[in-house]
Amino acid sequence: MKNFLVGLGILSILLTADGCKKKSAPPQTPLPVNVVTAVEKEVNEWDEFTGRLEAVESVEIRPRVSGYITEIHFEAGAIIKKGDLLYVIDPRPYQADFDRAAAEVERMQAQEKLAQIELDRAKELRAKNTISASEFDQKAATYQGASAATASAVAAKNAAALNLEFTQVKSPIDGRVSDARITLGNLVQPGAGPESVLTTVVSVDPIYAKVDADENAVLKYVKLSGEGKRVSARTAKIPAWVELGNEADFPHEGYV
Known about the structure:
Blueprint: H1 2-20, E1 51-55, E2 58-61, E3 67-72, E4 79-80, E5 85-89, H2 92-127, H3 133-166, E6 168-170, E7 175-177, E8 187-188, E9 199-202, E10 207-211, H4 215-226, E11 239-242, E12 252-255
Antiparallel strand pairs: 1-10, 2-9, 3-5, 3-8, 4-7, 5-6, 7-9, 11-12
Helix pairs in contact: 2-3
């Protein structure tokens, strides 16, 4: 009876073990693996900042003489060159002043020439002791007065020429012009207030890109500069790249 029980126990174990045995899975095909050779090279560290664009030059165009606007020679937003005509202020009063000043110069020059002739004659007479010293001195003083009057007339003519030139308002720089703040027929006068601004011109090339760097970035670059690992922007042009809101890959190159 014992032999039967032992045999039954062995049979149960064998059956149980055989029932738990699973079929082996078929071998899998190895997956392809890309192999890349490691390359050692220097990598430049860079930072990205948000900033704003500002013109290098910005000029408020103001009149230098008073008068009525008779011509406007630009369109708002146009690219203009230095010396391009923007406004014309009625030049007729200033042309009349210039013509009057020019005529006065000619009159003074004629008087100076006459005084010079009389002085030369007085020198000859004085050498012969024909006229007194006081008469000679009077001729000399007359010539000096005529010469000074001529110089004054020339200065007045030059001032009139400047005023006439200022009736043509021109751009002092290359750039983009804004709108005409004062239109045809209006009276303009020189002044420093906002009401005297005719228009503005801002340069477009080159242009500043001003950024607000965080404290950690500033300290990092200060440290690198102190350790001699970074050149100073004061002694070298450090390259920088800019992209606008609708651009990618920083297409505009400049320097710090």
